[in-house]
Amino acid sequence: MRNNKGQFEKGRQETFEEKEVRIKSLVKSWKNREDYIGDIKNPKVYNCWRSFMFTLKGKKIGCSEEWRDYRTFYQDVIDSYEENLVFSRIDKSKPFSKENFIWLDKDVAANIKDNTIKLEYKGETKTLKEWAIQFRLSVNGIKLRYHRHKDYSTEEILFGRKKVSKRALISASDLEKQKLRDKASKMCSSYKIKDKKKRFDFDLNIEWLIENILFKKCIYCGAKEFVGCDRIDNNKGHTKDNVVPCCVTCNTVRGNNFTFEEMKILGETISKIKNKHNS
Asked: Count of domains in the chain?
């Protein structure tokens, strides 16, 4: 805050009266500026002026020198202005000016805009509506894709982008790996639930199962298909030191009927029977 000499006084608080005087002085000085437009009460018209004065697209279109002054612009357009009309150019090849502007209904403005948009496809150039008629497509759908998706090709604008499933994007090898992981994940979940019910320990994981079980032969009969885990000691849970690779046949046969060592002997017989069936 300043004192009566115009000097700033450190720590002094401004009174309400002083603040009121200061604000009135600022408003008065602002009204005396040449670029003051606070007395022109029409924000929509002002936004039209801003659209070609300050936006990138508007600057490319340009305007006449006289219309760089908002008051001049306002005086030229306000008499023909009506609520809900769209500000547009008569001749799209020329900048905005007193001679080159018009207020249009929103639907009319949209149609004019879209009818000036042309796309080239397979050697032919047509408007969006003409392409829609030729291919019996929704013109609104084409318009929507054109305005919203600037990265679309002409074919994608006309017919839409084909959806590619995530599975199709995965290579054959990646798909097999994912299937293997899914299988190991389900096995882990199943074993963990069983051990939890019996209050047994469990310490297996997906990576360990893939490496030590799914790619191994059945420890009893040597089968390579439908291999899972078999517990050496059925009174303990599925832990890394208590499971071996075992096919579904041997696992079913063993159950709680035979010990681990007894099952090894039976496995040799099961292997011979399987080989005889396959021969």
From this structure: 1
226-270 pLDDT, tens digit each: 999 999 999 999 999 999 999 999 999 999 999 999 999 999 999
Q: What is the pTM of this model?
A: 0.41
Rg (CA), the chain: 40
Residue 111 has a CB neighbour count (10 Å cut-off) of 13
The reply to whether 61 falls in a domain is: no
Task: Quote the CA–CA distance of 88 and 103 in Å, as a whole number.
Answer: 6
Strand, helix or coil for residue 269: helix
Q: Which residue has the higher pLDDT, 147 or 239?
A: 239
| Buried-state track 51-65, b at ≥16 Cβ within 10 A, e below 16 | ebbeeeebeeeebbe
Q: Is residue 76 part of a domain?
A: no
SS3 category, 12: coil
Residue 225 sits in a domain whose CATH number is 3.30.40.220
DSSP designation for 212: I
